[in-house]
Amino acid sequence: MSEAATAPLQRAVIGDSEFDRDTAVTRREPGVYDIDLSAGWTIISAVNGGYLLAVLGRALGDALPHPDPFTISAHYLTASQPGPAVVRTETVRTGRGLSTGQASLYQYDGQGNEVERIRVLASYGDLDALPDDVRTTAVPPVLPPMEQCFGPEDGPAPIDGSNAIVDRLSLRLDPATLGWALGAPSGKGEMRGWFGLADGRDADPLALLLAVDALPPTAFEIGIKGWVPTVELTAHVRRRPAPGPLRVAITTRNLAGGFLEEDAEVWDSEDRLVAQSRQLARVRLG
Amino acid sequence: MSEAATAPLQRAVIGDSEFDRDTAVTRREPGVYDIDLSAGWTIISAVNGGYLLAVLGRALGDALPHPDPFTISAHYLTASQPGPAVVRTETVRTGRGLSTGQASLYQYDGQGNEVERIRVLASYGDLDALPDDVRTTAVPPVLPPMEQCFGPEDGPAPIDGSNAIVDRLSLRLDPATLGWALGAPSGKGEMRGWFGLADGRDADPLALLLAVDALPPTAFEIGIKGWVPTVELTAHVRRRPAPGPLRVAITTRNLAGGFLEEDAEVWDSEDRLVAQSRQLARVRLG
Questions:
Q1: Helices in chain B by DSSP H: which ranges?
Q2: In sequence order, which residues have a C-beta less than 8 Å from that of residue A127 and are 6 or more positions away?
Q3: pTM of the model as a whole
């Protein structure tokens, strides 16, 4: 598959793209935001958790005096559906370098009552104000070149239900982590790939919140076919990503008692570790 | 140093030990708890973050219908001091297998106003109700035998200020991660050791919340001498620990922009991974 075949005719830019439009929140009153959750970011029957995190992250970025999520912890309560939602934020503390906020996303039941979907706690800062020192032992994941990785057009849809999110992403997965799609999971809890937005918009901190939860679950490579709903996900944004595709590597080391952790790291085109995340997910065996 | 020299004459038990007394909360009204934060768990001038997490964890365990923290995310707002505090909890959602709660710990300023110290979001379950399946690629840290590891009595106090917490722990650190104490940090962001409570009380899930933040910071081995305050810490408790000493390994891979992550894992005497944590900490370069 050639690069040209998938490149959008005109690249979208940060601030004017599908991702920006679908995560845009409208301030109803100070700290309260309305949004219509897009059906474009669903997977199976649920709205993707990373998209939801980006929505909450955008609301908090407006409500807090600092612009960028440095660390955001989300507890997923009930499954979100496409449609109207409201985000209620609270400023917990404002400091010179960091401010902390809380936000909840609610949808409505048949009687119009608010039902809480997700609650997050987050500390925000200004990535552009950080010094450029780096002392790291972390190394980027080794991935084949993008043209040797696989996208959704290279095989049958691997799962039943909505795959809408697939059309909005430019995901190219490392064949070494795609055994599950051929019925031969490797048994290793690893998933790796190139990540971008389909319309060519470059990544910003909010897109990193999407990126950490956008690959197929590592559980597929462990041989688990069912749904693996996130209980909690915490993401650290460590640097504003450079333009260009991202590399995402996800690892699960310990599946036990029906739960597993998924550790994600995201690297930018300048070989910088731009985000780390860990989630606790529940394995629905059966 | 012989084992006998440090073993308490009579081992404390879970429920009747210094750790239990110092984390005990008194219900003032439903969901609201008073506590007198003990000076026994201070390090330098601050109350240890793991001890505080255990206090909040105990309050939530009382307030929620499930007993055990499965995942708890704490954002540290202002430094806690020994003395009176109040914990206010909120039940966010109760489900069959998991319930989610929020809690904040407040202390008082000179005028008696509440000042928030920490806020946590947590999902609780029942560890004893989980199936005993384990599929893991994680392996316990390789540590020298306890008698070849070093405790506080083996050297001068490494840092200025209070070391009260040291007397309440039975920490035996791997000499390979103690270069900093001899003025020769390894440059690797690793810290490993045996962990127990000094009075011999075995670990339970609340003690795991202490264990993930009880070792010296990995930053010391990177050559950073100053304080490394936690911005956010999330801990997953994966299993009720077996009796006996724990092994704790902490790793930092990426120091950048004045922040670093610390990943901790805790293993029990049956070689089970009983807890994982990650924190984002701020480097105060001096």
A1: 3-6, 18-23, 49-63, 164-168, 205-211, 219-222
A2: A67, A68, A70, A205, A237, A239, A240, B257
A3: 0.95
Cβ atoms within 10 Å of A81's Cβ, excluding its own = 16
Nearest CA-CA distance, residue B130 and chain A, Å:
5
Q: Which residues of B touch A257 (CB under 8 A)?
A: 127, 130-134, 238-239
Give the residue from A64, A66, A71, A263 with the most B CB atoms within 10 Å of its CB, the best one to mutate. Answer: A71
Chain B residues touching residue A138 (CB < 8 angstroms): 253-254
Please list, residue by residue across B141-171, b when 16 or more beta carbons sit within 10 angstroms of its beta carbon and e when fewer do. Answer: bebeebeebbbbeeeeeeeeebebbbebbbb
Residue-wise pLDDT tens digits, A60-77: 999 999 999 999 999 999
From B223, which residue of chain A is nearest by alpha-carbon distance? Answer: A135
- The Cα B65–Cα A167 span in angstroms is 41
What is the tally of helices (H) and strands (E) in chain B?
6, 16
Q: What is the CA radius of gyration of chain A?
A: 18
Contact A93 B102 (CB under 8 A): no
Q: Are B263 and B250 in contact (CB under 8 A)?
A: yes
Q: What span, in angstroms and rounded, lies between the C-alpha atoms of B221 and A59?
A: 38
Q: Which of A1-15, A137-151, B6-20 has the highest mean pLDDT?
A: A137-151
The structure tokens 């005109």 sit at A10
Task: Please tell me the distance in Å from A65's CA to the nearest CA on chain B.
Answer: 15
Alpha-carbon distance A146 to nearest alpha carbon in chain B (angstroms): 26
Chain A residues with beta carbon closer than 8 angstroms to that of B256: 130, 133-136, 238-239, 272-273
Q: With an 8 Å Cβ cutoff, are B73 and A73 in contact?
A: yes
Interface contact flag, A70 B98, Cβ < 8 Å = no
Phi, psi angles (nearest 5°) of residue A7: -70, 135
- Tens of pLDDT, residues A158-192: 556 668 898 999 999 999 999 998 899 999 999 99
